[in-house]
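Subject line: Sequence and fold of a protein, written as structure tokens
Area: Proteins and the way their chains fold up in space.
Start of record: The labelled sequence and token lines come straight after this line.
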Amino acid sequence: MSDSIPAIVLGGTGYVAGELLRLIAGHPRLHTAAILSDSQPGGSVAGAFPHLRSAYPDLTFSSLDQIDALVRETPRCALFSAAPHGVAAAIVDRLRYTSAGAYEAVYKHPHGAPSRISQFTCAVPEHLKTSVTPHVAHPGCFATATLLASVPLLTLGLADPRLFVTGITGSTGSGRRPVEGTHHPRRHSDLYSYGALSHRHVPEMTACAAAASGVTAEINFVPHSGPFARGIHVTVQATLKRPVSTAQAIEELAAFYKDCPFVRVIDTAPRVKDVATSNYANLSAVTNGSSIAVMSVLDNLNKGAAGGGMQWMNRLLGFDEGTGLTAPAPGWT
């Protein structure tokens, strides 16, 4: 592995960290050098992620001090952070939102490294080809699905900038530790909204949409907990600015994403099973003469998190952005 770049994962035993480990195991140009778990240093990675035992039979979790030493002695490495928002910034700052005030307004605690904010770009890979900063923050899973559907409407001037968004996410989006409102046995065979019109990721969606399209939209977002483990389905509705048929809307979406290998515009209703576990997103649209609805589906752990981050890392390292990411969805999950 002389030409292989060491990858370090922050995030311990979380679902996105596990997905990053899975993707790195299949990446031809990266190898896992370490994964952080300050609460379980020395613990078995295969014990936390039994499905990854064949890839990591002997790897153990490292402490923050060990990660710190490794980063300082490694001239070039790929650092992925899947740590919780409350601790990620401080960890990244030790290892080497547009403002701290905006972050604090949403998350209700101080930003861990406000001086680092200007060193990061936050964008979906399909909406910014080259980062103008040395580091990249990938938007969250709901934000990614919403942005993929919304940004073409705003950029192309197809619809008014007042958007109504309904999203349904799988239980893995709530993290690995079960709590009353998100535990899968409670969600099974059920569907319910939460954080309606007050979800904390709306400012992220609004800021990223404005940066990508030049239009500041009003995003009215109602998220739902779905009765499945992986995947997100988002519907964005808006009033058309000009008459557009369904066929024309699909054609304009396809043209917008024609150079984006991981976004597929189709003429049928997108289904979560067609993208679950993959780095692909499927989009479609319908109109009725005055309104348009754009449907977007993706995998919340892959395209909406680890896979999108890997796309950016591939670009930052000078690799083809699809390296290690082109496996299709299994179809039966």
Observations:
- The CA atoms of residues 42 and 315 lie 32 Å apart.
